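Structure in, sequence out. Go:
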């Protein structure tokens, strides 16, 4: 579904200090942008920012980069981050299908993939999943050592387990019903809060061997 544009979003994209545009001096230079030596964690598909904002509050010793391909949604997330005095977050309008060209190899120490599109209606769509083999190869090329993954789609979760296994990632801390497991560190996304009542949330962590 296409997001309705907000009148204020263009100004937010232009003026919000947390948003890195592709003409920015620090686009592709995240380590220099933060300039504090702290690890950098990345979320692909940040939505309206609930997860990354709360995570940044809990982990002040980490810098965060939140990626969203929809400009209006990203503008909303960046505005919320300012209003809620979030921790260290940079927001980037980008599509992972373009190769995450704003990231240098070795800059990211953790990747969050939360409730991405499962692409489960047609078998041929499997290659579009953010945990498909070609995407895992991209993350490996960028030397991202670990991935934290959540979904409510069983088909996506099972195919992700297969992909991680094929590409030689070590999978651990698997949960087939996250909310029933009393996982102490879980921070819900907007989507998760809305739809978790309809079925279990699946979660795993994967390490690059």
């Amino acid at each position: 579904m296409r997001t309705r544009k907000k009148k204020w979003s263009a100004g937010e994209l232009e003026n919000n200090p947390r948003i890195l545009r592709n003409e920015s001096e620090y686009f592709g230079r995240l380590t220099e942008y933060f300039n504090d030596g702290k690890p950098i964690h990345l979320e692909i598909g940040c939505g309206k920012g609930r997860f990354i904002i709360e995570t940044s509050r809990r982990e002040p010793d980490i810098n965060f980069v939140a990626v969203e391909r929809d400009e209006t949604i990203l503008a909303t997330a960046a505005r919320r981050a300012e209003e809620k005095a979030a921790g260290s977050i940079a927001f980037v309008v980008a599509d992972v299908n373009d190769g995450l060209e704003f990231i240098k190899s070795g800059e990211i120490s953790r990747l969050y993939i939360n409730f991405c599109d499962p692409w489960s209606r047609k078998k041929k769509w499997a290659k579009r999943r953010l945990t498909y083999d070609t995407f895992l190869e991209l993350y490996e090329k960028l030397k991202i050592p670990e991935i934290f993954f959540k979904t409510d789609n069983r088909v996506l979760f099972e195919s992700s387990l297969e992909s991680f296994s094929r590409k030689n990632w070590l999978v651990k801390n698997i949960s087939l019903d996250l909310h029933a497991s009393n996982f102490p560190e879980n921070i819900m996304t907007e989507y998760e809060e809305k739809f978790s009542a309809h079925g279990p949330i699946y979660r795993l962590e994967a390490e690059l061997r």
